[in-house]
Amino acid sequence: MTTAPGRRSSTFTRLLRHGFTDPSAADQLLNLDALASVRSDPVLLEALGATADPDLALRGLVRIAEAETESERQVLLDTLITAKPLRDRLLGVLGASEALGDHLARHPRDWQALVTYEAVDLNPGVAEFERGLAGAVDPDSLRVAYRRCLLTLAARDVCGTTDLAQTAAELADLATATLRAALAIARTAAPEDAARCRLAVVAMGKCGGRELNYVSDVDVIFVGEARDGVDETKAMQAATRLAAHMMRICSETTVEGTIWEVDANLRPEGRNGPLVRTLSSHLAYYQRWAKTWEFQALLKARAVAGDPELGAEYVEAVSPLVWGAADRENFVPDVQKMRRRVVDNIPADRIERELKLGPGGLRDVEFAVQLLQLVHGRSDASLHSGSTLEALRALAEGGYVGRADAAQLDEAYRFLRSMEHRIQLYRLRRTHLVPEDEADLRRLGRSLGMRTDPVAELNKAWKRHASVVRRLHEKIFYRPLLDAVAQLAPAESRLSAKAAAIRLEALGYADPAAALRHLEALSSGVSRKAAIQRTLLPVLLGWFADSADPDAGLLGFRKVSDALGKTPWYLRLLRDEGAAAENLARVLSAGRLAPDLLMRAPEAVAILGAPEGLTPRTRAHLEQEILAAVGRAGDAESAVAVVRGVRRRELFRTTAADLIDSYGTEDNPAEQDHGALVDRVGSAVSDLNAATVAGALRAAVRAQWGDTLPTRFAVIGMGRFGGHELSYGSDADVLFVHRPREGVSDEEAARAANTVIGEMRRLLQLPTADPPLLIDADLRPEGKSGPLVRTLKSYEAYYRRWSLAWESQALLRAEPVAGDEELGRDFIELVDPLRYPMEGLGEDAVREIRRLKARMESERMPRGADPTLHTKLGRGGLSDVEWTVQLMQMQHGWVEPGLRTTRTREALAAACAAELIPAEDAQTLDEAWVLATRVRNAVMLVRGRPGDTFPSDPREVAAVGRYLGYEPGHVGDMLDDYRRITRRARAVVEERFYGAAP
Question: Cα–Cα–Cα angle for 764, 765, 768, nearest 5°?
Fold first, then answer.
């Protein structure tokens, strides 16, 4: 058939507009003879465009049409065009399910099941499905009839006639009818066995709860009894044969495929136990041997097939055992362990796509709801429902779950289940994995009503709902008082110490007895303070449990509460400011440094609730506050006491922000840009120490000379101080420079400068509750042998005559931090030609720098330290990266302005931009430097004292891991990752530092 010029383009455009992704193939299909009578009808194209996958729907329609006789085909196409209900149903199914399209191609007349549109068709139950399966006499005919019923059910689903809960209930009802039909076929095949026994089929899991998926194992338990006059052993053998045959009828694959697996592994003793037991045998097992998870599974038990009286007896008999399960020892910890095992068993490459079992998945909702049902269902029969959504509604109505939380969980659960349904419907395969293929995601998104940008909209909605589930599930599932409620004796409401200890231990508390003492001290009594604590503690304990050291978190909270409990704002802050309580929990349980800083002035907890409380203050703001405080103080010591108090407060602000950004909170995920975290900490601590030095300098001068020192005086930051890269435990490396004022002799000026330095050092190291600031001037000319302070002229003379390569290299980090600004600028002008020499470094200078680095590696590594884990001097650590960057600065800084910076990462980025180092190598060095810096920060945060390698204590190294983003139990992964990243960095250093030509 010849297409007129321009026609093809117009057809393509129209097909694309209607959602086809392969217009060429669609055009060919529309031009087939099978669709000759409808190809030009706009109604067809509009209807195809409304489906989840127009290409798939069109292919399915062509297959059906080609499978029909000519007369039957015309009836199909005429009805399709004239009857909108059929058109929507048939094309909707064909666009959502390739498997049902295959069924219709094999059984083309089954499309007629979609024509009727009576009231009973909109809400079918078990009886209607039984009628639909009535003609099935063998496994093949049962499969065909099942698919025909499933076709009508799926049509209602994809057209929106039924919602998620109705669809899941209908799927369970269809499964019930199918089990009954399969059992009837088995009985017909073995009438003698049927005559010997009574057999009841009890549905468990989602089938029992009437919330089944399209393709899911149908969990069952079989109960058998001998008929009058029949030996029990023979009756059980007969019942077992019938049950096994029924399972095969549903599960085996024939020419018509399979229906679903019938799984009887929830029975007593699982696979190792008999397939069928008597009711008394079931009860004997449950009363003596059953584990917690078995009672949790029985919560959804529902008799569905076989002997109805026997099934009802079974459900009635096990019900008291189910609702008494919460009285069992270790009930809550058992349930939590089950949940952890589920997550731990998911392969790492699938966990992000796992819709059911992954974090924020369907199982999170189901476990949380079931746990609350079992705990509170003993005394509240309204919670006795096998349906997750019905139980969640009952929990909210009974006040066991907040209504807002329940509404969010309901919405998220419905969305995730709808995703699961549409994923399974496509090929009728049992899966809970979100597809990766773009076309599959597009179909999935469109099937859920997302048409503008289906893939992006789907991923956004999925992540949002999963995040809601994860947050609310953990809030409910880890509620620490749950176990205490579960262990209550019938008429009591007091806390059982044993039960609470078990609960706390399950949450990770190493000393539950001490934890109980803290809880008692915090929450006992009838005061308003105790009442608020009882409201706060359930949530706080969950947050503590999420840390590496819950005991430390709870102890710290008690100390802060003891110190501030009588202040009117403290508990109000934690209760009313949503972020404050969680921020406090994260800070108190993450290590020693932040809590130590807080305990010295507990009122700083207010920082955690203020809107901008965690934002570091600027250097100008800090200097203004500090210098004003020094001006008001009566003497130098009281002045610097205030200065050091400000420093402690700001260190707490910085550590708290760092911990909260690293851990993340319920509302704000952890910061993924680790470089930004390191930069924020480095800048904040460096600015704070600069302001502190400025305040100590002002206090020292005022104490002896008033407002004016006899000599102009400046403090030059060096090393990580000058580079704005200080970590929490770093000393302040500095140089001191002065210039005598007019009329002041050199001797008097030098004496004044040395005096003020000595006083500054003394004031900053006075024994107080606040952390000291150590000033280190060892990078000065001649090191410890040289004068502590020099005039600018003396520096000039020294550098001109004696300066060594390492001193020029050290000056790369020089930046004024306090004192006379003009003198500071003059010093920088003096040293710039040294650190950025014209024409770069000569061969001798490069060779000397490399020799110094090699000697440092061999001589300065602490004895016994693991060189693969030492953050400063180890392989690929800070020293390796910094020396490599500094060599490039000294070689090319004279011609590349971007290299003239004191900051390592900034200089590395400039070198990459100038093509002095490949982007991949620069990224490798940057990643290693950031990681090593974070490890040093983590060690200080966790231990409260500086360290250059990972701690040896298991709890401490686990806390370092949590700070770095590793989940519990993954310390080995952390160390492996550190070695891998730094090993790659060392390879770059070998090439760029040791191997590069000068």
Answer: 100
CA-to-CA distance for 457 and 465, rounded, in angstroms? 12
Helix ranges restricted to H, 453-548? 454-477, 481-486, 497-506, 512-523, 528-545
Q: How buried is residue 201: exposed, middle or buried, by Cβ count under 10 Å (0-12/13-18/19+)?
A: buried
Q: Calculate mean pLDDT across residues 555-580.
A: 84
Confidence of residue 480 (pLDDT cuts 50, 70, 90): very low
Q: CB-based contacts of 451: which residues, under 8 Å, 6+ apart?
A: 19
Find how far residue 40's CA is from the centre of its chain.
Answer: 51
Which amino acid is it at 593? L
CA–CA dist 707, 703 (Å, integer): 9
How many CA within 13 A on the CB side of residue 865? 21
Yes or no: say if 285 and 274 are a contact pair by the CB < 8 Å rule.
no
| Residue 288 predicted with pLDDT over 60 | yes
Residues sharing a CB contact under 8 Å with residue 91, sequence separation 6 or more, in sequence order: 47, 48, 50, 51, 57, 61, 80
For 793, other C-beta atoms within 10 Å of its C-beta total: 12
The CB density around residue 46, as the number of other CB atoms within 10 Å, is: 11
43: how many CB neighbours lie within 10 A of its CB? 13
Sequential DSSP letters for 683-730: HHHHHHHHHHHHHHHHHHHHHHHTT--SEEEEEEE-HHHHTT---TT-
Q: Tens digits of per-residue pLDDT, 301-342?
A: 999 999 999 999 999 999 999 988 877 766 655 655 555 554
Burial of 143 from C-beta contacts in 10 A (0-12 / 13-18 / 19+): buried
Encode pLDDT of 608-664 as tens digits: 887 788 899 999 999 999 999 999 988 999 999 999 999 999 999 999 999 999 988
713: β partners: 738
**Token pair for 683:** 């800048």
Count the neighbouring beta carbons within 10 Å of the beta carbon of residue 376.
Answer: 22
CA end-to-end span of the chain? 73
Please tell me the pTM assigned to this model.
0.63
Q: What is the DSSP letter of 496?
A: P
Provide φ and ψ at 509, rounded to 5°: -80, 125
Please give the Cα distance from 908 to 914 (Å, whole number). Answer: 10
State the average pLDDT over residues 688-698. 96
Whole-number Cα distances in Å, 615 to 618, 668, 921, 965: 9, 15, 33, 22
Residue 938 pLDDT class (50, 70, 90 cuts): very high
Confidence of residue 522 (pLDDT cuts 50, 70, 90): confident
347-361, 500-514, 803-817, range with the lowest pLDDT: 500-514
Q: Are strands 262-263 and 815-819 parallel, antiparallel or unpaired?
A: unpaired
Burial of 979 (0-12, 13-18, 19+ CB in 10 A): middle
How far apart CA 896 and CA 883 sit, in angstroms, is: 18
**Closest to 794 (Cα-Cα) out of 738, 719, 850:** 738
Q: CA dist 324 to 100, 345, 684, 928, Å?
A: 44, 29, 56, 55
Map residue 219 onto helix, strand or coil: strand
- Pairwise CA distance, residues 49 & 16, whole Å: 9
The helix/strand/coil state of 432 is: coil
Torsion of CA 152, 156, 162, 167, to 10 degrees: 40
- Per-residue pLDDT at 821: 95
* pLDDT computed for residue 487 by the predictor: 34
- Inter-residue contact 75 to 181 (CB < 8 Å): no
What is the C-alpha separation between 697 and 643, in angstroms, rounded?
11
- Mean of per-residue pLDDT scores for the chain: 88
Closest CA to 924 of 869, 854, 992: 992
